[in-house]
Write a structure and sequence with these properties.
The chain is an alpha+beta fold. It is built from eleven helices and ten strands. The strands form two sheets. It has a six-stranded antiparallel β-sheet with strand order 1-2-9-4-7-10, with helices on one face. A four-stranded antiparallel β-sheet has the order 3-8-5-6, with no helix packed on it. Strand 5 and strand 6 form a beta hairpin. The N and C termini lie far apart (71 Å). The N terminus is likely disordered.
Length: 293
């Protein structure tokens, strides 16, 4: 969307427009909502930002990158930075939609996370479009340009995009998963466990990557050589060894720090893994330190 596009089109058109030359990871360029006039043509230009629309009702025709699409109520469509696009509201049932426009170093990556990869411009939404509207309304509540309002609108922009990511249909989410290699999701799950081992369960890790437990458990074992539960325990035991070696914390305190409410359960798990009790392990480490001077 260009600045000259923001002229008032009708009484149902509300748009906020900001500096198009901003730099950063993700920058808000424009946001608004509109009940389009029948048959009106918009765009007909190369876009200088990504403009994501959420359609409440109606339909129209979108010409973009050699495609003719007909986004309708309950769908999202994206105008991509650097691509020519024009869109025309239907002559009988014109669009009612809201939008956010953004750009930045990670804007393309963000759009791909939503599901708008190369050649994809329109998709269904499984959340109510009114939720997108609510965020745009809140952006318009404080339109003045100052640090606090800019920060607030930036947060709402991220909420809008997070909602868009979450609104993809199950089929689209599966397709997105297939576009990434299995190693990517195994790595993500492993990192999630390493950073959160004291407060999570295996189910939390599976939900984090978005697969079914049975399928991902098999995938994880194939790539890591151990089950998710074994990896979670390994992270806990590795940390407990470090705490036994480098601190004077009691066994009970260490158990609590790594996610065991019952120190007996921790001691049992530690001995099963290390073939020695936590107390015995600490004594062994201290004796080695004395011997090595």
């Amino acid at each position: 969307m260009k600045p000259e596009d923001t002229l008032k089109r009708n009484k149902f058109y509300h748009c906020l427009e900001y500096d198009h030359d901003q730099s950063g990871d993700i920058c808000l360029i424009t946001c608004g909502f509109e009940q389009c006039d029948k048959g009106v043509l918009y765009g007909s230009s190369v876009k200088d930002c990504y403009c994501l629309h959420a359609v409440q009702s109606g339909t129209g025709t979108l010409h973009i990158n050699g495609q003719e699409l007909h986004p309708k109520g309950g769908q999202m469509f994206l105008l991509k930075e650097g691509e020519f696009a024009e869109y025309t509201a239907d002559t009988e049932d014109p669009w009612r939609y809201c939008w956010v426009g953004f750009k930045g170093e990670r804007a393309k990556e963000l759009c791909e996370q939503i599901g708008f990869t190369d050649g994809i411009y329109c998709m269904n939404s499984k959340v109510e479009i009114s939720e997108f509207y609510d965020l745009v309304y809140r952006m318009h509540e404080k339109p003045e340009i100052n640090f606090v309002n800019d920060l607030r609108r930036r947060g709402l922009l991220f909420e809008f995009c997070a909602l868009a990511i979450n609104s993809g249909t199950e089929t689209e989410q599966i397709q997105q998963q297939k576009r990434n290699s299995p190693e990517v999701y195994v790595k993500l799950a492993a990192e999630f466990i390493r950073h959160n081992y004291a407060t999570i369960t295996v189910n939390d890790a599976v939900e984090y990557v978005g697969f079914s437990r049975s399928y991902f458990s098999t995938l994880f074992r194939q790539r890591m050589g151990m089950s998710l539960q074994e990896y979670l325990m390994k992270c806990r035991i590795d940390r407990s060894q470090e705490l036994l070696e480098k601190t004077e914390l009691s066994v009970q305190e260490i158990a609590q720090r790594i996610g065991y409410d019952n120190p007996m359960n921790f001691s049992r798990a530690f001995k099963g893994s290390c073939k020695i009790s936590p107390v015995g392990y600490r004594k062994m480490i201290r004796q080695k330190e004395i011997q090595n001077g």
